[in-house]
Design a protein that fits this description.
With 503 residues, the protein is of the alpha+beta class. It has a 6-stranded mixed beta sheet with strand order 1-3-2-6-8-7. β4 and β5 form a beta hairpin. The longest helix has 28 residues. It is globular, with a radius of gyration of 24 Å. It starts with 9 loop residues before the first helix and ends in a 10-residue tail after the last strand.
């Protein structure tokens, strides 16, 4: 029976644990034994965490027996890219420069995933300091590709993808700065989720370019990625029950993305688009010149930040690095400070242009679950897609009516019902994390017209979590074209409050 476990989805393994058909200890031992004996495993795992895995599996087994499982992934083993700090275990990010680097605590996302009950199998190989999309690393190891084990697996989350593809982990956690989850997922026939910047905390993650770095799962299914994202956020996962593509608008980006495609990949892409259409999705061809310009800025912005972060470490012992990666880092030294600043200013403009091109206000039929794309003003800053549900907590002290058109700072000014002025914020700094509550203004509550009277009364009571004033965190902007809600009405919530948004 255990032979079938190695290619089951994480969700299916979790369901079997819940039914009592799989013991988490036996499941973990099966994966540890497979890793120990698999001929390709040394190219996949940098180091194992057997003692930790066995302890976590025993805890999961006890919870399952007593009926106190923490979620569907409680007791499911996963692998971690070797740039996530693991307490007491070396984290070297695929580089001899960091050999022996041993943190004293876990990365924040590993802490959250552990609290969700996942079992840490070990650390996977990766491109050196995450600065390659190929996955080749002669300094440590170059993980194999599922479709040709003599070829590279794509990077920089190369070992993460290989661990899942070769049945050495049910799922993996990687990182993505410029494609490092998406590329290896595609090359190894997996699902990879590139999350939005600032959605997940980077505390305890070895950086490449912190303003672009993101964390994301690689797995066998969309469901697995949704469950893993929930575990990393310490929030209920997105409910995919009854999910369908009917009516979904999907953009087919023609700018840059489809350039110079070979015949076979182009046919595969067209076939996938046809399947989406047959499933009811509405595909729209999109030409976006701002994408091409943004891609042109990447070389300067990526390399300058990366070299700025790593210069002192690199130049202490440059001979320890893979020469091609060393050259890539050092190219950042040639970027002038003025060009870097100008590049970022231009990129912010391009992001706003992208929003204007792609975002559409919600329709009346979707107001109880308003979704926003995340690219800049008029949408959640750094949040991906957010579903605002009726169970949000509301602080009466923060109810305010914003009157459009009045200028104040970098946004618009609104007058509160007591006459006090509050500033509308389209962008809230990423380092604001205070509080665990979501807050809707009085006007924004009307976006939920079918909310029962009892629930409405409950929601408008002060929660007292943040005191007076608008809470620090993200701003979700309501921007319907009609109705009683004023343009610019907002729901404010902290980065840790997404549990209030997910159910």
């Amino acid at each position: 029976m255990s032979g079938t476990w190695f290619h089951m989805t994480a969700a299916d393994l979790g369901r079997e644990i819940g039914k009592g058909r799989i013991n988490p200890v036996e499941l973990t031992e099966a994966f540890l034994e497979r890793i120990e004996t698999h001929p390709l495993a040394p190219r996949v795992y940098a180091r194992m965490t057997e003692t930790r895995a066995r302890g976590e599996a025993m805890g999961a087994a006890t919870r399952a027996k007593q009926g106190f499982r923490r979620g569907l992934l409680d007791g499911v083993p996963i692998s971690w890219k070797d740039l996530f700090d693991t307490a007491g275990v070396a984290t070297e990010a695929g580089s001899a420069l960091l050999r022996g680097r041993t943190p004293d605590r876990d990365a924040a996302v590993l802490e959250q995933a552990t609290l969700a009950g996942t079992v840490c199998l070990g650390k996977t190989h990766m491109s050196e300091l995450a600065f390659s999309g190929l996955g080749m690393n002669p300094v440590t190891a170059s993980p194999p590709c599922l479709n040709d084990d003599k070829a590279v697996s794509g990077g920089s989350s190369s070992g993460a993808a290989a661990s899942v593809a070769f049945g050495l982990a049910p799922a993996a956690i990687g990182s993505d700065t410029g494609g490092s989850v998406r590329v290896p997922a595609a090359w190894n026939d997996l699902v990879g989720l590139k999350t939005t910047s600032d959605l997940l905390p980077l505390d305890g993650v070895v950086p490449l370019c912190e303003r672009f770095d993101t964390i994301g799962p690689l797995a066998h299914s969309v469901e697995d990625c949704a469950l893993l994202l929930g575990a990393l956020q310490s929030a209920p996962p997105v409910d995919l029950t009854g999910a369908e593509l009917g009516g979904a608008r999907i953009a087919v980006l023609e700018t840059v993305a489809l350039d110079d495609m070979r015949q076979a990949p182009a046919k595969g892409f067209d076939d996938a688009c046809a399947r989406l259409t047959r499933a009811g999705a509405r595909l729209e061809r999109l030409a976006a010149p701002e994408v091409a310009e943004a891609m042109g800025l990447a070389a300067a912005l990526f390399t300058a930040e990366a070299y700025g972060i790593w210069r002192d470490t690199i130049e202490t012992a440059p001979e320890k690095m893979f020469s091609r990666i060393l050259e890539r880092f050092r190219s950042g030294a040639q970027v002038a400070a003025a060009d870097y600043v100008a590049g970022w200013r231009r990129l912010e403009v391009l992001r706003r242009q992208w929003v204007a091109r792609t975002w559409r206000p919600p329709t009346a039929a979707s107001r109880t679950e308003t979704r926003f794309s995340a690219m800049g003003s008029g949408a959640p800053d750094g949040m991906g897609s957010v579903a605002v549900r009726r169970d949000l907590l509301v602080d009466a002290a923060d109810h305010h009516r914003l009157k459009g058109g009045q200028q104040f700072g970098d946004g618009r000014r609104g007058d509160a019902e007591g006459g006090a002025q509050r500033q509308r914020r389209a962008h809230i700094p990423a380092d604001h994390r205070a509080g665990d509550d979501a807050h809707l203004s009085t006007e924004a509550l009307r976006e939920i017209p079918d909310l029962p009277a009892l629930d409405r009364q409950r929601l408008v009571q002060p929660c007292g979590a943040l005191g007076t004033g608008c809470p620090a965190g993200r701003a979700v902007t309501f921007a319907p074209a009609e109705g009683p809600v004023g343009k610019g009405d907002e729901a404010f919530f902290s980065a840790s409050s997404r549990r209030a948004l997910a159910t």
